[in-house]
Amino acid sequence: MMENERYPLELAVSVDDFTNCGWKDVLDQTLREGYSAMWQAFSTAARKAAEGNCPSHAKALWLLADACSMMLSPNSANEPFKPSIVMDGRRSAIPEDLSESDIGFYAEIVDVIEDTWLKARVADLVWLKQCPRQVKFALAAIDAYRLIPLDTEMWVRGGRECWERALGLVRMLKAGAGSRLAEMESTILAAFNSVTKACGFLGLWLANLLDSNGLGRAHSFDIGRKLNALAIEFDGDGDFYRSREFFDAASQWFSRSGDTIKSTEMTVAVAEGWVKEAIARVSSDQPSHMVAANFYEKAIQIYRRIPRSLREKHQVDERVAELHRFMNESGAKSLDELSLVKTPGVDISELLEHSRQSVAGKAFEDAFFAFANISQVVQVARIRSGAEKILERSLLRRLASSTHLSRDGRVIAKQPAIGFESIEASDNGALWAQMLQDYQIHLEIEVHGSICPAHDVLLQEHQLREADFIHLASQSPIVPIGRECIFGKALYAGYERDFIVSMHLLAPQIEHMVRFHLKGAGVKTTNLDIEGIENENGLSTLMGLPETESIFGEDLAFEIKALFCDALGPNLRNELAHGLMNDNAFPSVSTVYAWWLGVRLVFNTFWNRSRVTNISEVEENNVQ
């Protein structure tokens, strides 16, 4: 809450105190930069009056400062004024801080205030807080607000909020506001029609003010034509951002006028504005194909907004196909613009030696058991906790969005900035993306530090045949019936370091394995299309089922999804199924780890069942 130690609360102030406190001199010596500057000026003057032992003048100035300190939020009818500053449990003034005598003081001085900004704010507060309300104060606020000039400087200093508040009060009073709504509409239209290119965005802002308040409808075509003319001027100057904004607004106003043809022409101009900016970006002193590809994508999206009935006239389909080609070319070239960011290296020499020793010099079963469990089991709870901590500390992730490219430069995923919400309150897409990033770091360490060194030792000390892996798969309860040979061949190919064959066999079998065990648990794994044809769901859909975690466990479910199903990760299932991986993609950290994960699943389930069987046999012999 706001603490008040500036003046005695019981001190009463009057119109005479206001008149004699020097408020006019304060404003005359203040740069007119809106209410914020007025707040600071009145606060400084109030402190000087208090130091000069003029408590009544000090309180009058403090009350003026409090009135100007509040942040106007015109879209809220119930709470139009909010504190400008909130920090460490304290805040600046709000209307609820004002006492009945304070409001009475404001009511007494409204008629003698000559400054437009101050009169509007004081009258508005009286209207809001006085009980019972008197319409004359709302009208005084409206009339003062609408005297604020509609120019660029005043608009950005708070004029926009003042005009929106005035229009809100007029709508609230309805017939009680008399002809003020029509008069304000005329004033805004006159200001809009006098706008030139030198006014920057003012024309757009005024058009939006009319639109958001349901005004200017009878002049829709003329407003659209004016916006179009300004857009053409901006476009001629190479100011593509402004030109697109004005073309887009013109399209909406033409649409309101019923002129669909002109509206569509403006939409085409918006799309071509993105194309022009893409070309300019590539031709600039600091060219960026990555940015250009994004601009081409924007143009394609805009073109798709055009109704089908009008696409042929503007050759939309042909243009979209051409822009797709430009986007793909820029996307491919953008890969050369990416730079490698290196962090300090991690010494994994001890991990390498430990991995080799774990399997070296052991009998086959012991060595293979050690290999199948050479890497720590991923604990998704730990990964999630670590990701949350990173996001909480990362200013960059809160402020910047991210775009993910495929090997050929296609945009395959986008992540918005997190903002400053708590991680729990924000969209968990950012958390998932960070978890996948951390998981892939885990894969790098495990593959290079544990799996590959141990695999090298196994190859040196144990000669295994394809038949051995097929037999292993046939004894593993996780392998579906009838898939033993395929699983065995996939694992053997990986053991022989033929990861091209291994992955093309293993990835679809992992998907079938998931489907097989879900069906065995009574889970529906199909969908029925509109023609009554029942289709099997893909792995991504299956991993999204709530039963998946209960059947496979949270940790394994995470690994399968992270490795095989998500565009932010290796996405092996889709990359392999659609033929997107070339020869150079094998071997890789993800393919080696995916093969090893298959080994772990098949061997450990075989091992666990065989131990249970052996224990049962021992117990049976003991009973006999």
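Above is the first protein from milestone M3; the second protein from the same milestone is given next.
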Amino acid sequence: MNKQLILFFILYFIGTSSLFSQRVFEQIDRGSFGNSRNDTISKTGEITVKLSGKTKYTDYKIFSHKRDTAYIDTTLTIQKDYKFNYLRTDNFELLGFHNQGQTFTNLGYNFSNLKILPDIGFTAKQFSYLDIDEIKYYEVPTPTTEITYRTGLQQGQVLDAIFTVNFSRRLNVSLSYKGIRSLGAYRRSLASHGNFRGAFHYRAKNNRYEIRGHLTSQDFFNEESGGLPESEVEKFTSNDEDYETRSRLDVNLTDAENQFEGRRLYLDHSYKLISSKDSLNKKDFSNLKIGHVLTSETKEYNFTQTTSTTDIFGDINSAGASNNLAKNAITNNELNLEFNSKYVLGKIKAKINLTSYSYGYDSILNTSSTISKIKLEGNAISVGADWNAKIKNFQLNATGNLSPGSGRLSGNFLKGEASYKKDSVFSVKGSLLISSKSPNFNTLLHQSKYDDYNWQNNFSNVNTRDLGFDFSSKWINASLNFTNIDNYVYFDEIKIGENNTPKQFENQITYLKVKANKEIKYWKLALDNTLMYQNVSSGSSVFRVPELVTRNTLYYTDYWFKGKPMLVNIGATFKYFTKYKMNAYNPLLAEFTLQNTEEIGFPSVDVFFNAQVRRTRLYFKIENVTSSFTEKNYFSAPNYPYRDFVIRFGLVWNWFI
């Protein structure tokens, strides 16, 4: 029902936006948007647009959560190829499962961008979840659409549609929906996901009042196979011809599935109490601004298994519930006061947050458990400040937050950045992050009909310190992160009497990550190289990563045909990571757990042919092209084979009406 309402809303909005867009064209004709369009309206109500050639690509703007500005980019580059996947991001540090829409194994970790508050957990289901800082806002002179399509695996496809329009120069609305349905090559591998996003931003004529916000509704459904039994793994690794059709292989679970859903309302508005300049085209020398930010978000996770035909999860309480629906709701109200002036260094924002949270279950799901409470609830008050300053080529940023007390939301957060940019020659940045917060809620309280998956813990805050350096130039791009973690929480391996229970590491994790990228060009050829080195000098028994991860892409670029109507990229990408004791995937917990029996590491080669025709980019890729004649040692996680040889096709198409 929710999907039907969303679809109706999208169709209604697109149908009516053409009427409202008339106002935009009229404003353009009167000089708005740089006087870049002329329009006429016929008696039938249709709008004819005559391009004057004055509109530039910089008129089509994208604003991030931090209010950084980018532009709608219709070019074809090798970085676009890396991002042409379901997540729409470069997944160099991720290893996907065989089917699109399934989870990912982390080949590397990023602790430089931690959240301030703890989360519900079930992290294996949240790779596709769009957080607040991943929602984009737009400003466009004409209605704009972007369609991304990619074929799935065995009866499936991915579609990501974005539509945005400015009703006036000061009001923009955008609607986006990304959906996937892919059956997969193995049994019980169906993935069906949906991400709806609706966003807007508005500012008053005098530029004193400004508001932006978004609404999201996201759901991720997966059938869960539990991986292959050991007997079936042997058939896979031995390359048994009778099982080249992967659906013939048996799986551990025949009726299990899990679902993750999330809904969020976000509003951020402010009003300038004092402003020396009100014009949009002149810089404010000083102002005092009061603001309010509302975040209301709910997340739910549910694992369902109607029958119990496997013992991989241990003993079961036959009277227990068939699902383990966990709910998390958090509401945060932030009040802030911002001041900037030419008489002080930078912009200062003081803020206070009122937060309430509720996580848990509606009842006791397993009568054999010793759990005494079904919910974790509470309220907290926190104070914080942001500071941003620019001194010539230096940029300084700092943010801090303190939540006193002894509740689950108590902790502190401090992040500072200092960067220097020398024109377009090079830039260097240093960062420091200090965080203390509660572990995810599912490690503190969890219920299930399986006896070994019921716990109630009282873990200490996880303390994280991350020191980072980044260097970017036309010669090389490099980064270094040095991370220390105290009280690290992990899911243990399966042992006698317990199954993957969460535990808190008593010692310190010391993690080093060094990453470098260099592209070498000659004639119409290019070799793009990315190398990542990782070392865990302390805590490697519970925190595991491959020592080396490399990606090397050799490709050819040229314009084809008379008049250069088509730009092509043709090449191959080699990726490899060294063997290590990769974490195992647990579909009941939707988490990755320790295992000490198997080491995984393998190379893969993808061949691609990409082309650009005007504002359309076409992608044709053959994935894991060497799998048909190499050793069958490729796994995304223990008992979960990586994808075989498969051909994918897709496109990205932009319309600027």
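Note on the second protein: The radius of gyration is 26 Å.
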